[in-house]
UniProtKB/TrEMBL annotation:
Keywords: Aminotransferase, Pyridoxal phosphate, Transferase. Gene3D superfamilies: Aspartate Aminotransferase, domain 1 (3.90.1150.10), Type I PLP-dependent aspartate aminotransferase-like (Major domain) (3.40.640.10). It comes from Algoriphagus jejuensis. Pfam families: DegT_DnrJ_EryC1 (PF01041). Belongs to the DegT/DnrJ/EryC1 family. This is Aminotransferase class I/II-fold pyridoxal phosphate-dependent enzyme. It comes from the Bacteria. InterPro entries: DegT/StrS_aminotransferase, PyrdxlP-dep_Trfase, PyrdxlP-dep_Trfase_major, PyrdxlP-dep_Trfase_small. Signal peptide: none annotated. The keyword Cytoplasm does not apply. The keyword Endoplasmic reticulum does not apply.
Length: 378
């Protein structure tokens, strides 16, 4: 039996050990070490005029971002339905209510038309949404020009969930810098990993300093502990920041590798009738965190579930696309605007192995198994 091939595995082939050793010998492992600020300035340098605050997860970055946008109990927040639960759960942490919007087929991300419908409908009910959570799914940029035009027209800020899109660009601008606040995740299987970690980015200095303050228990600058607000223990630790610095140094190479992986899948599989890839619009460049395919069973004779089983038996890990949040039991009662675009993508899609370390031989093996399964079925 050949080795198993994981869906998305991190690579630590840079200076991770060097920074870890330095952090350990400094004795400062918590939120007071030197690498936290350095990771922030290195990340900021990649983000045009935006500054970064590094935190202990992408979820805590989303939670803080919603706090900073003034989301309070009873408020409504619009959120892309086709995403991981962490995009919406922090809305509920704040006692606010998510309103879900369907995707469009060009990018698989939130549909600008349906977003405007949803806003108009909520306004008619006298409930102006407090924010719009947009996701760049699997690294693919959403239609930010259209979305930002709507955001400006109705004066509702955009929170960009770029957890999966570090290194993706939209008309030359880094994803994460396109809305009012952007967030990243550095969890175990994201394009760079710090074990667990995240970041919040903004071009507003006040937002950044407030985020730092709230993420360290909202401690006043006094010789004793004094608190005027409820804060959070959300800051990144120095060990994670050290790993983050090393990982970030490798990001361009990681993006390049993942884009090559995507190109190879396309070169082999795109010709099969009934197989489609996540489209990349003109002006957009995905980091292709995950390479994904859609399988139209009517044309291929095999479903995504069957193909997943075939690959699983060969030790190849795949995953279904995110189950849309409006279909999740926890969000059964949330309002939803749209049709069945995200639902159809979910029912046909499969995420293929996309690790930075996936070598051409292993990828060929995966492609052969898929080609075989498709030829047998048709
Ligand atoms: C991973 C992810 C998150 C959450 O990040 P964590 O660091 O795991 O908390 C949020 N949104 C999306 C779209 C994600 O993929």
């Amino acid at each position: 039996m050949a080795d198993t091939i994981p869906l998305s595995f991190p690579v630590f082939d840079g200076k991770e050990n060097f920074y870890l050793q330095k952090a350990l010998s400094s004795g400062l492992l918590a939120t007071n070490g030197e690498f936290i600020g350095l990771f922030e300035s290195n990340l900021s340098m990649r983000m045009k005029s935006h500054q970064a605050v590094v935190l202990n997860s992408g979820t805590s970055a989303l939670h803080l971002a919603l706090v900073l946008l003034g989301v309070s109990p009873g408020d409504e927040v619009i959120c892309q339905s086709f995403t991981f639960c962490a995009s919406a759960n922090p809305i509920v942490y704040l006692g606010a209510k998510p309103v879900f919007v369907d995707s469009e087929s060009d990018t698989w991300n939130i549909s600008p038309e349906l977003l405007e419908d949803a806003i108009l409908s909520r306004l008619a009910l006298g409930r102006k949404p407090k924010a719009i959570v947009v996701v760049h799914l699997f690294g693919m940029p959403a239609k930010m020009m259209e979305i930002n035009a709507i955001s400006e027209k109705y004066e509702i800020p955009v929170l960009e969930d770029a957890a999966e899109a570090l290194g993706s660009t939209y008309h030359g601008q880094p994803c994460g810098t396109l809305g009012s606040i952007g967030i990243f995740s550095f969890n175990g299987n994201k394009i760079i990993s710090t074990g667990g970690g995240g970041a919040l980015i903004s071009d507003d200095t006040q937002t950044i300093s407030k985020a730092k303050y709230l993420s360290t228990q909202a401690r006043e600058e006094l010789p004793y502990y004094q608190h005027l607000e409820i804060g959070y223990n959300y800051r990144m630790n120095n060990l994670a920041a050290g790993i983050g610095i090393a990982q970030l140094e490798r990001l361009d190479d990681f993006v390049c590798k993942r884009r090559q992986i995507n190109q190879r899948y396309r070169a082999h599989l795109e010709e099969f009738p009934g197989i489609a890839f996540q489209p990349e619009q003109a002006g957009s460049s995905s980091n292709f965190w995950l390479s994904t395919i859609l399988i139209d069973e009517n044309l291929t004779g095999i479903s995504n579930k069957e193909l997943r089983k075939v690959l699983d038996e060969e030790g190849i890990e795949t995953r279904f696309l995110w189950k849309p949040l409006h279909l999740q039991p926890i969000y059964r009662d949330a309002p939803f605007y749209g049709g069945n675009v995200a639902e159809a993508l979910f029912s046909k899609g499969l995420c293929l192995p996309s690790s930075t370390s996936l070598n051409p031989e292993d990828q060929e093996r995966i492609v052969h198994i898929i080609e075989n399964a498709l030829s047998k079925a048709s």
